[in-house]
Design a protein that fits this description.
The structure is a single chain. The chain is built from 28 helices and 39 strands. It is an alpha/beta fold. The chain is flat, with a radius of gyration of 32 Å.
Amino acid sequence: MADTEQAPVHALLTDGTTIRIRRSHPGDHAGVLHLYEGMSDANLRLRFFAVSRASARQAAERVAAAPRPGYRALVAEHAGRLVGLAEYEADPHGSTADVALAVADDWHHRGVATLLLEHLADAARTAGVTAFTADALAENLDVLRVFHDLGLRVTRRYDGPEVHCVVRLAEDETYLSAVDTRGRLADVVSLRPLLRPASVVVIGAGRRPGSVGRAVLRNIVTGSFTGRVFAVHPVASTIAGVHAYRSVTALPRVPDLAVIAVPAPAVARVAEECGRTGVRALLVVTAGLDTAGAAALMETCRRQGMRLAGPDCLGLANTEDGVRLDATFAARHPGPGTAGVAVQSGGIGIAVLDGLARLGIGVSSFVSHGDKYDVSGNDLLQWWEADGRTGLALLHLESFGNPRAFSRTARRVARRMPVLTVDAGRSEAGRRAAASHTAAAATPTMTRQALFTQAGVTATRTIGELLDTAALLHSQPLPAGTRAAVVTNAGGAGVLAADACAEAGLTVPALPAGSVNALLALLPPGAAATNPVDATATVGEDQLRACVEHLARDAEVDAVLVALVPTAVAAATGEDLVRALTDVPEPLPRPVVAVLPAQAARVELLDTCAEGMLPAYGDAQDAARALAHAATRARWLATPAGDVAELPDVDSRRARQIVAGFLSDAPEGAWLDPPTAAGLLGCYGLPLLPWAWARDEDEAVAAARRLAGPDGRVVMKGCRPGLLHKSEEHALQLGLRGADRVRAAHRELVNRFGDRLTGVVIQPMTERGTELFAGVVQDEVFGPLVVFGLGGTATELLADHAGRLAPLTDRDVRDLLASPRCSALLHGWAGAPAVDVEGLQQLLHRLSRMACDLPQLAEADLNPVLAGPHGITVLDVRVRLLPRRPHDPYLRRLR
C-alpha cells in the first residue's frame, strides 16, 4: 500500500475551537504518554480493555516510533498540548486497517475524535485502505456513537462484552452531507465572535480625524453598537469619545473582536498580543503586509484560534437588533434588512452598499474579505443560512480558495435563498492557451460559469446588473418560464423592449385569440394586443391596470414587462400611468417590471398598495436581463438536483496502477503512448474504436488485415512524442486498402518523422456520423472540468463547447449535452437521424468518474467522438498525466 505525506492542517471543533492536526513523529512520545496518564481509570479500561499503565506506555512507544509502511497516526494539538490521537495499522495481506482512538478526558464531546477520524480516513483511502476495523467494549457508547455518526457505512458484530466494528471508507452523499453538517455548525459557532461580538476593541485609531482606524471607531460608536467599545492607543486617554488604554492587556475585559488598523509592520505583533490575551476574532483593515508579515499573522491566528477577516478590507457590519455593529470605514451606516453581502474589494463593497441603500434593500450582515486570508464567501454563505435573517446573498469574489466546497455549500444555500455574484475575472489575461483541444477549450470563463450554473448561483457581469437582479428577486415572484408579455403606451418603446427580451433569452410569443380579444375589450380603440401589446398613448390608468392584471394572471404568460414613456396626452388628462402599476390592490401571481426611459436612476423599487415593491428600470435591456436571471433561477429550483451515476463495471484499482506505473517511468509527467492511453480508457468502459499498435511496416500490414472493415480500408495514425494535431502535421493516413497502400503510407510517415516515429495506430475506417468532442482538464483550483462540444478538425476554430465540473450528476450531463450550439445535431437535423444520446450520457459519466478517480489526469482529449443512431465510438484519444497527489476538497480544514 502506498504511504503519503500529510501536511499539518487546522480545523474547527463543534464549539468553534481551532485545533491542529498533523502526523505523529518520534518527539510525540511524552505528549502521548501524558495523554494516557491523564485519563481516568474508567477511560483507560475502555481504551485498552483493562486499567493498564503498561499498555499506555506501549501505545506511546508505538506512536512515537519511526514511520513504517502500513501504519499511520494523527495527533490533535491545542496550544501546544496533545489532546487527541487516531491511528491505524493496515493488514499487509488485505485492504483493511485496525483503527484506535484516544481523546483527553477534558476534551470529550467536542468533536476531536470525529475530526481525527475524517482525516485519518482520507489518508487511508489514499494509501489504498478500503475499511477500518475496530474492537470496542459494548459499554463504550461514546466510541460506538463516533463510528455511527461519521456517515460512513458501519457494520457491528457483538461477541460477549465486545463489539467488532467495520467502517467502510467509500465516500457517498450520506457521508458528505454528514461532513457538511458538522462543518457548518462548527463554522457558524467560530464566526460568532467576529459577527456577533459582545465587545470590540479598535487598535490603531488615531487622535486626529482622517485615519482609517478612527473612522471605524466612529462608525462603531455612531452605529449604536450594543456591546462594549474600547480603544487602544499608546498615548491618548480618549479617542472619539471612547476611553483608550495603553495595550490590549490593559483592557478591563477581554474583547471578542479586535479591529487592527496599525501600520503593516506592527500587525503581526499586535495580533500576537490579542491572541495571548484571549481575543477570539480579528478584523484587519491594514493594507500592505509583506510575505513575512502575512505568514506571521496567519500563524498567530491559527495557533491562537482566532478567526480573521481581511487584511486590506473595508470592514464588516451586522445590523441585527442585538448587535448593530458597523465596523467599517464606509461613509454611511448600512440599513437593517435581509441582504447578506460579501465582497473582496472595498470599493465594490461601497458601491453595493450604496446601491442597496438607494433601492431600500437593507443589509443583514456585510463582510469585506480584502486579501481573504481566512474568512471566505463559503463561511458567509453558511452564516447567512443559519442566521434566521438573510433572504438574499450577494457576493463579489475575485478568487476561490476551495471552489468545490464553495459549490457544494452554494448549491445547498441557493435552494433557500437567491445567491447572486459578479463573475469577475472573465478574461483570458494571465492564462495562456494550452497545447491540446481540451485545455484550449476550457477557458477561465467556462470553468467559473460551470461552477455557478451547477450550484444555482446567479452570475451577473457588472455591479449594475447585480443590483438590477437583486431588485427583481427581492420584490417579485419568480417566473414559471421565459414567456414575456410586453405592454407599452408607445409602439417604438415596445419594439425595443421586445428586442431586449429576445436578446436576454426570453420569448415574446404571440398571444392566443382569447387573450387578444379580452385585452382589446379593456384597452382604448386602436390598441394592438398580439404581443407586444400597444395600449396607445390614450390609455388611461384604469385601462392599463386592468390590462397588466389580466396578463399577470394569463396562463400563456410568465412575466409582464411594461414600458411607459411620458406623453402630453397623459399630462393633459392627469393620468399617472406609473400609478396604474403601483396601485394594485393585491399581489399579482407573476412578476411585473416597469421600464421608464425617462427615469434618471438605473433601477428603483417603487412602493405598491399591496405592501410590495415594483422594480422600475431606465432601460429595457436591464429589465429583460433581470427577468432572464429570475427565469433561470426558477428553472434551476424546479429541476431535481440529480445523482452521480453508479458505474459497477469500472476498474479504478487497475487505472491507478496504470497511472502509478507510467509516472514511475516519467516522474515529471507526459503524454501517454497510445497503448497505455487505450488501456486507461478500457478501465472505464469508454468505447474506443478497435485498434492495433504497430512498431514497423510488417506489423502494420498484419494489423490492417485483422482490422479492415467491410470495404477493406483502414486508417493509419503516426505517433511521436509531443504530437498533438495529427491532421495538421500530416500524421493521418485515411482509406488505406491493401498491403501495398499500407506499406507506402508507413514509409511516408517514416520519411516525415524519422527516428521520432515511435509507432503507428491502425484502425478500421468507420461509417459517417456526427463528429463530437469530449474531454477532461484538471484545473489546479477548480478541479476536473468535463468539456463537450463539436469535434473534428474545426473544434478549436468554431469553439462550440460547454463544460461542467466533475463529479457530474445526471442533471449535469443533460445540461452539458444541451448547452453547445451543436446540440440540435444530437436529435436529428435537416433529416439526419438522431444519435444515441444515452450512449453519449454514459460516455460523459465515465469521463467524469475517470477524472475524479485520477487527480494525475491533467488532460484527456477524445476527438473525434463519432455519434450515430446505433452507438458512440471514440476514434482518437490523447491523455496527459502529471504527478499530483489526491486532495479531498470536502475534508474539513481551515484555509
